[in-house]
Amino acid sequence: MANIKKVLASLTIDEKIGQLAQLPPFFFIKDLKKEVSGPLAKLSITEEQVFSAGSVLGIGGPEEMKQVQDAYLAKSTHKIPLMFMADVIHGYKTIFPVPLAIASSWNPSLAKLASKVAAAEASSSGIHVTYAPMADLSRDPRWGRVMEGYGEDGLLAYRMAFAMTEGFQGESLLAEDSIAACVKHFAAYGAVEAGREYNTVDISRYALFNYFLKGYQGAIDAGARLVMTSFNTFEGKPATTNEYLLRHVLREFLNFKGVVISDYDSALETIEHRTSLDQRDVANQAIKAGLDIEMASTTYLKHLKQLIQDKVVPLKLLDEAVLRVLELKNDLGLFENPYKSMSVEKEKSLVYSHAHMDAALKVSLESIVLLKNANQTLPLKKGVKIALLGSHHNTGQLLGPWSWHGDRTLTQTIQSAMTPYGVYFSSAVEDLEQYSKEDLRRLKKADVIVLCTGELESMSGEAHSRANPVMFKHQTEFIKQLKAFGIPIVLVLVNGRPIVLTEVVSHVDAIVETYFLGTQSALAITKTLFGENNPSGKLTMSFPRSVGQIPLYYNHLNTGRPFNGDKKSYTSFYLDEDNEPLFPFGFGLSYTQFQYGTINVSSSLFTPKKPLVISLLVKNAGLLDGFETVQLYVSDLKSEVALPVRELKDFKKVWIKKGKVEKVEFTLTVDQLKYVHSNGDLTWDEGEFVIAVGSSSVHLKSVTVALKKDSK
Ligand code: BGC
Q: Which of 414, 365, 280 is nearest to 537 (CA)?
């Protein structure tokens, strides 16, 4: 290992500043002299500055990586290797389900497996850092990026972000198959107003600390080495120059010790936010706020030296930031081996290997959520005459956004996976008027219609918000047309967010929500439809009845006038809509049925030293083995600041064989009941709590207990 303090001391001020710059790969391998009118000119930096930059963003393939590192090491004066960063969000080439789908598995060990596989593939390609996990809590399906996160609950986000970070980073960053995790987007990016990408965030400190921070905290507690700032403002200040967020909340409250990096151009964009005057002002504010690496823009390269010479910025701030970057490079083993893990052969042997494809299938199978299954339409019997319809039935576009390196041409289609099970008719056209008479005749003879439809991959992800996340008009019309045939309809949804299904729900017999399941989508869907997989996913975002209900989330406050069921009363309701979602948080069906026994608690009074043990029996009363996710919710009946009507405090996913009973036990400690009070303290209160256990956030059994301090 290098002695990084010595390395730091050996650097000139220009070389130090270079470590804080992150540039795209082509800067290092193009003839920059010819670029005078190109990107270099736009950034107005010199070739010398390019070859002092500390890291590279968005690169793919070991060959390119090697070329860039070689060119850099040949020209840079200090010979400190470049660090390569990229968006490896849900798989590198073997693509896993989008994080929202993985979260729906309620199985953090699968999240860990997915990121472990992703790390192994990405590192063989030369990537050292991934810009993941994205732990932005979101209550708004209009926002295109909900597919990148874990949904609306803090605890679930905490556990998923924790597990993903562990998977990426492994036991040690020195390991060949580990990459460093960069949790993003700090902070509260998921709260963009009206779900519109890059929009304003205006939430309270109460909401930040009690809800929105939890996902980031999960990654940080698991040791994530980097944090990315967000595009939005918090309390009017852009996150990237927000000293309160970066120094107080991140470093003090969350105890983060690693590297802070901006989002793409987010430092420069503070000029657009109109909180920075010019690039010098950006650099001045950003370094003081606690930003280490500037992604894509170059205000540090251009202005930091002068700011230090003018004594506007203390040298100490620069040294601290550079030291953090050098420490990361050192921990990654880059000083010893700038080409760490980079290997064409290794990449070839890992990508789509049996082990990786098996892992992807495993995760996909548990991510599927069964939302409706009237008259046991599912599972299908092998050999039934299936009419396989819809825009998504015969395409490889199933990987989902943020899967740049995934190959759609190699992705199996649902049609191909399902053919051995008996596809008798198929069509991608979602309008019966366009079907020939012969097609209609055949279609009418089908035993079941499987309609695979939803959103295109390009309808969610960054910069892809929707004001109306509903089924498209032609899809609804098509479903209504099909309904007239009287044949059971199974709706297989492929999409990047919760969709308003109100208009179609009563016209279909079964609904299978898959989001985007990645490389193994087709196989996972097929196995599930035919009962080789018993679905076990549960929603991690509420599915609204109407767009007007958004933001909609289970852990809302009670209000002073909770709806009392009487729409003539002056209570909190809509004249034209219910308050409840169509499908609630935590909901998901199985092909078997689970019966919940009564809840037992160790005592009706618990204390810090005597935590509450909650147990119950869950019986699999159906005819198939299956997983059930048992959820524990708590309501604090009197708190200093208002807390949610109920909040998830723990969950357990258990495998229960048909006819068998499993005992499920939770231990509730005071730590789980802590919240940030109005004075900023993270503490718990004495008082009464409702303990509720069940199969979703609304299907619950409950008991009331009291919490007291231990007597001295
Ligand atoms: C996105 C980040 C991403 C970065 C680098 C930005 O536009 O907001 O999530 O990591 O680009 O690709």
A: 365
Residue type at 32 in one-letter notation: L
End-to-end CA separation in angstroms for the chain: 51
- Three-state SS sequence of 493-560: EECCCCCECCCCHHHCCEEEECCCCHHHHHHHHHHHHCCCCCCCCCCCCCECCCHHHCCCCCCCCCCC
Report the distance separating Cα 189 and Cα 191, nearest Å: 5
681, two tokens = 């303290």
Closest C-alpha residue for ligand 1 atom 8: 263
Helix (H) or strand (E) holding 389: strand 386-389
Q: For residue 651, what are the β-bridge partners?
A: 631
Using CA positions, which residue lies closest to atom 12 of ligand 1? 87
Q: Stretch 83-95: mean pLDDT, rounded? A: 97
Give the nearest ligand 1 atom to 148 CA: 9
- 3-class DSSP assignment, residue 70: helix
Pocket test for ligand 1, best of 148, 231, 263, 297 (most atoms within 8 A of CB): 263
Burial of 479 (0-12, 13-18, 19+ CB in 10 A): buried
630 close to 649: Cβ distance less than 8 angstroms = no
Among the atoms of ligand 1, which is closest to the Cα of residue 184?
9
Q: Residue 708 is encoded by which pair of tokens?
A: 């007291």
267 alpha carbon to ligand 1 midpoint, in Å?
Answer: 13
| Residue 483, amino acid | K
| pTM recorded for the entire structure | 0.98
Question: Whose CA is closest to 680, among 707, 640, 646, 711?
Answer: 640
The 10s digit of each residue's pLDDT in 287-343 is 999 999 999 999 999 999 999 999 999 999 999 999 999 999 999 999 999 999 999
Give dist(CA 436, CA 458) in Å, integer: 31
Q: Please choose, from the candidates 549, 601, 557, the residue with its C-alpha nearest in 3D space to the C-alpha of residue 580.
A: 549
CA distance 332 to 8: 17
Full 3-state SS string of 271-326: CCCCCCCCHHHHHHHHHHHCCCEEECCCHHHHHHHHHHHCCCCCHHHHHHHHHHHH
Distance between CA atoms of residues 661 and 595, nearest Å: 9
Sheet holding 489-494, edge to edge: 369-373, 510-513, 489-494, 448-454, 386-389, 423-427
| pLDDT attached to residue 223 | 98
pLDDT given at position 32: 57
Name the token pair of 215.
């996902």
Distance 68 CA to ligand 1 centre (A): 21
Contacts within 8 Å (CB) and 24+ apart, 308-311: 308/13
What local confidence, expressed as pLDDT, does residue 24 receive? 85
Residue 230 DSSP label: P
Tokens representing 462 are: 């960054």
**Would you tell me the crossing angle of helices 299-309 and 315-331 to the nearest 10 degrees?**
140
Query: Residue 43's pLDDT band (boundaries 50, 70, 90)?
Result: confident
Whether 153 is catalytic is no
Torsion, Cα 679 191 179 103, to 10 degrees, reads 100
Tokens of 98: 């989008």
Q: Could you tell me the distance, in angstroms and rounded to a whole number, from the CA of residue 263 to the centre of ligand 1?
A: 6
Q: What is the DSSP letter of 583?
A: B
- The region that residue 373 occupies, defined by phi over 0 for left and psi between -120 and 50 for alpha, beta otherwise, is beta
**Ligand 1 surroundings by CB, under 6 angstroms:** 57-58, 87, 131, 184, 263-264, 462
According to DSSP, residue 454 is labeled E
Token digits of residue 330: 């050192």
**673: confidence class by pLDDT, cuts 50, 70, 90:** very high
Closest C-alpha to ligand 1, atom 11: 264
Give, as one character, the DSSP assignment of residue 671.
G
Which of 87, 140, 263, 292 is labelled catalytic? 263
Question: How is residue 82 annotated by DSSP?
Answer: P
